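Appendix C: a fully annotated inverse folding record. The material below is reproduced so that readers can follow the format used throughout the book. The structure is listed first as C-alpha coordinates, followed by the designed sequence.
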Protein backbone atom coordinates (compact mmCIF):
# COMPACT_ATOMS: atom_id res chain seq x y z
CA UNK A 1 0.00 0.00 0.00
CA UNK A 2 1.25 3.44 -0.95
CA UNK A 3 -0.30 6.01 1.35
CA UNK A 4 -4.05 5.46 1.13
CA UNK A 5 -3.87 3.31 -1.96
CA UNK A 6 -3.51 -0.39 -2.62
CA UNK A 7 -2.07 -1.02 -6.09
CA UNK A 8 -3.11 -3.68 -8.59
CA UNK A 9 -1.13 -3.05 -11.77
CA UNK A 10 -2.97 -4.18 -14.89
CA UNK A 11 -0.05 -4.17 -17.29
CA UNK A 12 3.29 -5.90 -16.69
CA UNK A 13 4.97 -7.90 -19.45
CA UNK A 14 6.64 -11.09 -18.26
CA UNK A 15 9.64 -11.05 -20.59
CA UNK A 16 11.03 -14.48 -19.83
CA UNK A 17 14.02 -16.24 -21.33
CA UNK A 18 11.62 -18.27 -23.45
CA UNK A 19 10.01 -15.05 -24.72
CA UNK A 20 13.33 -13.88 -26.14
CA UNK A 21 14.03 -17.29 -27.64
CA UNK A 22 10.66 -17.37 -29.38
CA UNK A 23 11.26 -13.82 -30.57
CA UNK A 24 14.67 -14.64 -31.99
CA UNK A 25 13.20 -17.50 -34.02
CA UNK A 26 11.18 -14.90 -35.96
CA UNK A 27 14.30 -13.12 -37.15
CA UNK A 28 15.40 -13.81 -40.75
CA UNK A 29 19.05 -14.69 -41.33
CA UNK A 30 19.70 -15.14 -37.64
CA UNK A 31 22.90 -16.27 -35.98
CA UNK A 32 22.96 -18.97 -33.31
CA UNK A 33 20.55 -18.41 -30.43
CA UNK A 34 23.11 -17.42 -27.80
CA UNK A 35 24.72 -14.86 -30.10
CA UNK A 36 21.31 -13.38 -30.88
CA UNK A 37 20.41 -13.15 -27.19
CA UNK A 38 23.68 -11.37 -26.44
CA UNK A 39 23.03 -8.98 -29.31
CA UNK A 40 19.55 -8.16 -27.99
CA UNK A 41 20.95 -7.46 -24.53
CA UNK A 42 23.69 -5.24 -25.93
CA UNK A 43 21.49 -3.27 -28.31
CA UNK A 44 18.71 -2.67 -25.80
CA UNK A 45 20.93 -2.33 -22.72
CA UNK A 46 18.69 -4.93 -21.15
CA UNK A 47 19.10 -8.22 -19.36
CA UNK A 48 17.96 -11.58 -20.73
CA UNK A 49 16.63 -13.49 -17.70
CA UNK A 50 17.77 -17.00 -16.84
CA UNK A 51 15.81 -19.99 -18.02
CA UNK A 52 13.80 -20.56 -14.81
CA UNK A 53 10.66 -18.36 -14.90
CA UNK A 54 10.15 -18.84 -11.15
CA UNK A 55 13.44 -17.06 -10.51
CA UNK A 56 12.24 -14.18 -12.69
CA UNK A 57 8.96 -14.19 -10.77
CA UNK A 58 10.91 -13.87 -7.52
CA UNK A 59 12.66 -10.80 -8.89
CA UNK A 60 9.28 -9.26 -9.62
CA UNK A 61 8.16 -10.04 -6.09
CA UNK A 62 11.26 -8.29 -4.75
CA UNK A 63 10.53 -5.29 -6.97
CA UNK A 64 6.91 -4.86 -5.96
CA UNK A 65 7.70 -5.50 -2.30
CA UNK A 66 10.21 -2.65 -2.53
CA UNK A 67 7.53 -0.30 -3.84
CA UNK A 68 4.74 -1.68 -1.60
CA UNK A 69 2.60 -2.89 -4.50
CA UNK A 70 0.05 -5.59 -3.81
CA UNK A 71 -0.61 -7.31 -7.13
CA UNK A 72 0.31 -7.48 -10.82
CA UNK A 73 -1.19 -8.83 -13.98
CA UNK A 74 1.64 -10.68 -15.72
CA UNK A 75 1.26 -10.86 -19.49
CA UNK A 76 2.82 -13.62 -21.52
CA UNK A 77 3.69 -11.39 -24.45
CA UNK A 78 4.51 -13.99 -27.09
CA UNK A 79 2.31 -16.85 -28.30
CA UNK A 80 4.02 -20.02 -27.12
CA UNK A 81 5.34 -18.56 -23.86
CA UNK A 82 2.28 -19.30 -21.76
CA UNK A 83 4.08 -21.84 -19.57
CA UNK A 84 6.42 -19.18 -18.18
CA UNK A 85 3.50 -17.13 -16.90
CA UNK A 86 1.70 -20.22 -15.59
CA UNK A 87 4.75 -21.16 -13.50
CA UNK A 88 5.13 -17.61 -12.18
CA UNK A 89 1.48 -17.42 -11.14
CA UNK A 90 1.57 -20.86 -9.54
CA UNK A 91 4.59 -19.78 -7.50
CA UNK A 92 2.91 -16.58 -6.25
CA UNK A 93 -0.85 -16.93 -6.78
CA UNK A 94 -1.82 -14.17 -4.35
CA UNK A 95 0.39 -11.60 -6.04
CA UNK A 96 0.22 -12.45 -9.75
CA UNK A 97 -2.64 -12.95 -12.19
CA UNK A 98 -1.76 -14.45 -15.57
CA UNK A 99 -2.76 -13.40 -19.09
CA UNK A 100 -1.45 -14.69 -22.40
CA UNK A 101 -1.08 -13.31 -25.91
CA UNK A 102 -2.87 -15.21 -28.65
CA UNK A 103 -2.08 -15.60 -32.32
CA UNK A 104 -5.64 -15.24 -33.63
CA UNK A 105 -4.69 -16.91 -36.92
CA UNK A 106 -3.34 -20.06 -35.28
CA UNK A 107 -4.86 -23.42 -36.18
CA UNK A 108 -4.60 -24.42 -32.48
CA UNK A 109 -6.11 -21.17 -31.18
CA UNK A 110 -9.03 -22.77 -29.38
CA UNK A 111 -7.18 -25.86 -28.18
CA UNK A 112 -4.54 -23.70 -26.52
CA UNK A 113 -7.03 -21.19 -25.13
CA UNK A 114 -9.09 -23.99 -23.54
CA UNK A 115 -6.00 -25.33 -21.82
CA UNK A 116 -4.79 -21.96 -20.60
CA UNK A 117 -8.10 -20.59 -19.37
CA UNK A 118 -9.63 -23.76 -17.94
CA UNK A 119 -6.73 -25.98 -16.91
CA UNK A 120 -3.99 -23.44 -16.14
CA UNK A 121 -6.47 -20.88 -14.74
CA UNK A 122 -5.07 -17.88 -16.57
CA UNK A 123 -7.65 -15.10 -16.38
CA UNK A 124 -7.68 -13.70 -19.86
CA UNK A 125 -6.06 -12.96 -23.18
CA UNK A 126 -4.15 -10.18 -24.90
CA UNK A 127 -4.99 -9.41 -28.55
CA UNK A 128 -2.93 -7.40 -31.05
CA UNK A 129 -5.26 -7.01 -34.04
CA UNK A 130 -2.98 -4.69 -36.04
CA UNK A 131 0.05 -6.96 -35.55
CA UNK A 132 -1.79 -10.12 -36.58
CA UNK A 133 -3.79 -8.37 -39.30
CA UNK A 134 -7.24 -9.32 -38.10
CA UNK A 135 -10.30 -7.30 -37.12
CA UNK A 136 -11.26 -7.76 -33.49
CA UNK A 137 -14.85 -8.28 -34.69
CA UNK A 138 -13.93 -11.07 -37.11
CA UNK A 139 -16.33 -13.99 -36.62
CA UNK A 140 -13.33 -16.37 -36.57
CA UNK A 141 -12.73 -15.06 -33.05
CA UNK A 142 -16.27 -15.61 -31.76
CA UNK A 143 -15.56 -19.09 -30.31
CA UNK A 144 -12.64 -17.55 -28.41
CA UNK A 145 -14.87 -14.83 -27.00
CA UNK A 146 -17.50 -17.40 -26.06
CA UNK A 147 -14.84 -19.30 -24.15
CA UNK A 148 -13.67 -16.16 -22.34
CA UNK A 149 -17.28 -15.35 -21.50
CA UNK A 150 -17.79 -18.88 -20.15
CA UNK A 151 -14.85 -18.58 -17.73
CA UNK A 152 -15.73 -14.96 -16.84
CA UNK A 153 -12.43 -13.83 -18.27
CA UNK A 154 -11.04 -10.55 -19.56
CA UNK A 155 -9.78 -9.51 -23.00
CA UNK A 156 -7.16 -6.81 -23.53
CA UNK A 157 -7.22 -5.42 -27.07
CA UNK A 158 -4.30 -3.26 -28.18
CA UNK A 159 -5.30 -0.44 -30.51
CA UNK A 160 -3.51 2.61 -31.87
CA UNK A 161 0.25 2.88 -32.23
CA UNK A 162 2.10 -0.32 -31.46
CA UNK A 163 5.65 -0.05 -30.18
CA UNK A 164 7.34 -3.26 -29.01
CA UNK A 165 10.89 -2.52 -27.88
CA UNK A 166 12.11 -6.14 -27.66
CA UNK A 167 11.24 -6.64 -31.32
CA UNK A 168 13.33 -3.59 -32.19
CA UNK A 169 16.27 -4.88 -30.19
CA UNK A 170 15.98 -8.30 -31.82
CA UNK A 171 15.80 -6.90 -35.34
CA UNK A 172 12.32 -8.36 -35.87
CA UNK A 173 10.13 -5.93 -37.83
CA UNK A 174 6.82 -4.88 -36.30
CA UNK A 175 4.56 -4.82 -39.35
CA UNK A 176 1.12 -3.50 -38.50
CA UNK A 177 -1.99 -2.41 -40.34
CA UNK A 178 -3.73 0.75 -39.20
CA UNK A 179 -7.01 -0.59 -40.56
CA UNK A 180 -7.10 -2.98 -37.59
CA UNK A 181 -6.02 -0.39 -34.99
CA UNK A 182 -9.31 1.49 -34.59
CA UNK A 183 -11.02 0.99 -31.20
CA UNK A 184 -14.48 1.54 -32.68
CA UNK A 185 -14.16 -1.89 -34.30
CA UNK A 186 -14.67 -3.25 -30.79
CA UNK A 187 -18.16 -1.75 -30.46
CA UNK A 188 -20.18 -4.48 -32.23
CA UNK A 189 -18.28 -7.33 -30.61
CA UNK A 190 -18.42 -5.80 -27.11
CA UNK A 191 -22.18 -5.52 -27.57
CA UNK A 192 -22.44 -9.09 -28.85
CA UNK A 193 -20.49 -10.42 -25.83
CA UNK A 194 -21.79 -8.22 -23.00
CA UNK A 195 -20.54 -10.50 -20.24
CA UNK A 196 -16.92 -10.23 -21.38
CA UNK A 197 -14.92 -7.46 -19.79
CA UNK A 198 -12.75 -5.73 -22.40
CA UNK A 199 -9.78 -3.51 -21.61
CA UNK A 200 -8.22 -1.04 -24.05
CA UNK A 201 -4.61 -0.41 -22.98
CA UNK A 202 -2.65 2.85 -23.09
CA UNK A 203 -5.74 5.03 -23.56
CA UNK A 204 -5.82 3.44 -27.06
CA UNK A 205 -2.33 4.78 -27.91
CA UNK A 206 -3.35 7.70 -30.11
CA UNK A 207 -6.87 6.66 -31.03
CA UNK A 208 -8.23 8.73 -28.17
CA UNK A 209 -11.49 10.11 -29.58
CA UNK A 210 -12.33 6.65 -30.91
CA UNK A 211 -11.68 5.19 -27.46
CA UNK A 212 -14.08 7.71 -25.95
CA UNK A 213 -16.73 6.70 -28.48
CA UNK A 214 -16.39 3.06 -27.43
CA UNK A 215 -16.84 4.05 -23.81
CA UNK A 216 -20.07 5.89 -24.59
CA UNK A 217 -21.59 2.86 -26.29
CA UNK A 218 -20.18 -0.12 -24.38
CA UNK A 219 -20.45 -0.29 -20.59
CA UNK A 220 -18.38 -3.51 -20.47
CA UNK A 221 -15.27 -1.82 -21.91
CA UNK A 222 -12.55 -0.49 -19.61
CA UNK A 223 -9.39 1.54 -20.24
CA UNK A 224 -5.94 1.13 -18.77
CA UNK A 225 -3.58 4.04 -18.16
CA UNK A 226 -0.41 2.10 -18.88
CA UNK A 227 3.02 3.48 -19.54
CA UNK A 228 4.50 6.84 -20.42
CA UNK A 229 1.75 7.46 -23.02
CA UNK A 230 4.27 8.84 -25.49
CA UNK A 231 1.53 8.87 -28.13
CA UNK A 232 0.35 12.20 -26.69
CA UNK A 233 3.25 14.08 -28.26
CA UNK A 234 2.25 12.82 -31.73
CA UNK A 235 -1.48 13.37 -31.33
CA UNK A 236 -2.88 16.34 -33.32
CA UNK A 237 -4.35 17.86 -30.15
CA UNK A 238 -1.12 17.41 -28.12
CA UNK A 239 -3.03 16.60 -24.91
CA UNK A 240 -1.26 16.17 -21.60
CA UNK A 241 -2.01 13.29 -19.25
CA UNK A 242 -4.22 15.47 -17.07
CA UNK A 243 -6.51 16.27 -19.99
CA UNK A 244 -6.50 12.66 -21.17
CA UNK A 245 -7.50 11.37 -17.75
CA UNK A 246 -10.09 14.10 -17.28
CA UNK A 247 -11.79 13.36 -20.62
CA UNK A 248 -11.64 9.62 -19.92
CA UNK A 249 -13.24 10.15 -16.51
CA UNK A 250 -16.07 12.12 -18.14
CA UNK A 251 -16.95 9.16 -20.38
CA UNK A 252 -15.85 6.04 -18.52
CA UNK A 253 -16.16 7.30 -14.97
CA UNK A 254 -13.78 6.18 -12.26
CA UNK A 255 -15.41 2.74 -12.35
CA UNK A 256 -13.99 1.71 -15.75
CA UNK A 257 -10.40 2.93 -15.57
CA UNK A 258 -7.57 0.70 -14.35
CA UNK A 259 -4.01 1.69 -13.58
CA UNK A 260 -1.14 0.13 -15.54
CA UNK A 261 2.59 0.79 -15.62
CA UNK A 262 3.59 -1.11 -18.79
CA UNK A 263 6.63 -2.50 -16.97
CA UNK A 264 8.61 -5.46 -18.24
CA UNK A 265 12.24 -5.20 -19.21
CA UNK A 266 15.05 -6.01 -16.84
CA UNK A 267 17.12 -4.66 -15.18
CA UNK A 268 14.87 -1.59 -15.03
CA UNK A 269 12.06 -3.75 -13.67
CA UNK A 270 9.11 -1.95 -12.19
CA UNK A 271 8.36 1.49 -13.60
CA UNK A 272 7.63 3.21 -10.33
CA UNK A 273 7.94 6.60 -12.03
CA UNK A 274 4.75 5.88 -13.98
CA UNK A 275 2.87 4.95 -10.80
CA UNK A 276 4.25 7.94 -8.89
CA UNK A 277 3.28 10.36 -11.66
CA UNK A 278 -0.26 9.03 -11.86
CA UNK A 279 -0.73 9.02 -8.08
CA UNK A 280 0.36 12.66 -7.98
CA UNK A 281 -1.92 13.49 -10.90
CA UNK A 282 -5.09 12.13 -9.28
CA UNK A 283 -4.24 14.13 -6.16
CA UNK A 284 -3.63 17.32 -8.18
CA UNK A 285 -6.94 16.77 -9.98
CA UNK A 286 -8.64 16.33 -6.60
CA UNK A 287 -10.21 13.06 -7.65
CA UNK A 288 -12.06 11.84 -4.53
CA UNK A 289 -10.19 9.13 -2.66
CA UNK A 290 -12.90 6.45 -3.13
CA UNK A 291 -12.76 6.99 -6.91
CA UNK A 292 -8.97 6.94 -6.98
CA UNK A 293 -9.01 3.66 -5.06
CA UNK A 294 -11.17 2.21 -7.82
CA UNK A 295 -8.62 3.17 -10.47
CA UNK A 296 -5.59 1.84 -8.62
CA UNK A 297 -7.05 -1.40 -7.23
CA UNK A 298 -10.76 -2.00 -6.86
CA UNK A 299 -11.87 -1.98 -10.51
CA UNK A 300 -9.32 -4.56 -11.59
CA UNK A 301 -9.88 -6.74 -8.54
CA UNK A 302 -13.59 -6.60 -9.25
CA UNK A 303 -13.27 -8.11 -12.71
CA UNK A 304 -10.43 -10.53 -11.90
CA UNK A 305 -11.60 -11.98 -8.58
CA UNK A 306 -14.85 -13.57 -9.76
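Designed amino acids, in order:
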Amino acid sequence: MIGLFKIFDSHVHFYSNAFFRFLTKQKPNRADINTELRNIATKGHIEIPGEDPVQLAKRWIDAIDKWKIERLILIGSMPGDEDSVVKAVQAFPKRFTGFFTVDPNSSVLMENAEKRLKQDKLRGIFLYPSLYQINVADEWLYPLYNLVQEVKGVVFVQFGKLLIRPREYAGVPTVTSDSFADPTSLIPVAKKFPNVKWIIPNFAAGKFSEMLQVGKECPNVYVDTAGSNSWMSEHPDKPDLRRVLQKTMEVYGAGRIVFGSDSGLMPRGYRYDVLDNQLKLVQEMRIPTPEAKKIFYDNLAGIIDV
